[in-house]
Amino acid sequence: MREGWRWFGPDAGVSLDDVRQAGASDIVSALHHVPIGEVWTEAEVAARKNLIEETPPGRSPLRWSVVESIPIADRVKREGKVAAAEIEAWIASMESVARCGISTICYNFMPVVDWTRTQIDYVTATGSTAMRFDHRAFAAFELFVLQRDGVEAEYSEEDKREAAAAREQLGEDGLAEVARIITSALPGSTSDALTLPAFKERLRQYSGIDAARLRQHLIEFLEAVTPAAESLGVKLTLHPDDPPRPLLGLPRVASTEADYAALFDAVPSGSNGMCFCTGSLGVRADNDLVSIFRRFASRVHFVHLRSTRRESDSRSFHEAAHLDGDVDMIEVIKALVAEDRMRSPAQSLIYRPDHGQRMLTDLTRQSAPGYPAVGRLRGLAELRGVIRAVERLT
User: Fold this and answer.
1) Is 106 a known active-site residue?
2) What's the superkingdom here (predicted)?
């Protein structure tokens, strides 16, 4: 298995030498500066690739192996194949990536919001900080700030009482911070940062789009792009929803084993693959991660390893240490190692330590929320140790 590391570019506070010192070999990156929906040019992709792969004398080489992510324009999610120009632009970006020798692309199909949290510096018992999704705070945002149409009917009376208590506890400034985190797009997001009025308008545009319709739009997107992916030798990997359940009255269609089975049945192309993210899928207690991986192993071309801890309210969770959350990481890694042994070196699984708690020098250092240096270094070291042990003992 090959060790990856998500890198947000030279201005993100974590350098390529940091990656080298962590021991990773494969870079996961994207052109985050290109607006959503615009074509990635071959020249820009090549410039980023050269920045990563032109190794200074005496330094360990790195390789840009995975693009995460080429954002899918919102209109595609709302209208499917009708958004032909936006789909063609996405294909053009994929072609630029492929011409530069990168053959794995991660993407998601979450409408309006990408991965969602309510807190980015939740203080843990060790003094490190983690990202958190607090359902009570999220409900307070929905009920008292966003106030979208029909929201009252979606929450029980008990939920409403807890949301009111959360609003009181957070105070005006705290609730405003929750709203900012939800609407402003977290690092690496493939959705737009929006003002509150624009956020409400974007939600309104999804009126009448249920899970069946959103899934059909995803299928239409895949039917359009997979022939090009096949011809280019590109593997597309769909990232799970995060959290893996409907939010803001919006459907989600990549949250469960059944969701992925429906997509693979509809578009059986070998280029239609999965990003196996243990953190996202692991939020749901009914997702059997080992079973999901084994069923779709041939479709898995990229892996995110992290763990979350569900709280007393099972709808709330925070980012745990990589080996300490609800994910049975040891059993997951056993399954990964068994699959990787059956692959050729060129097809070896690429995994990265996903997210990480801020600790030690991370606490006073610039880094993207969820992507500190030391916290991910700890995660990678723990995962590497388990992998080496499993490889030796099985």
Assistant:
1) no
2) Bacteria
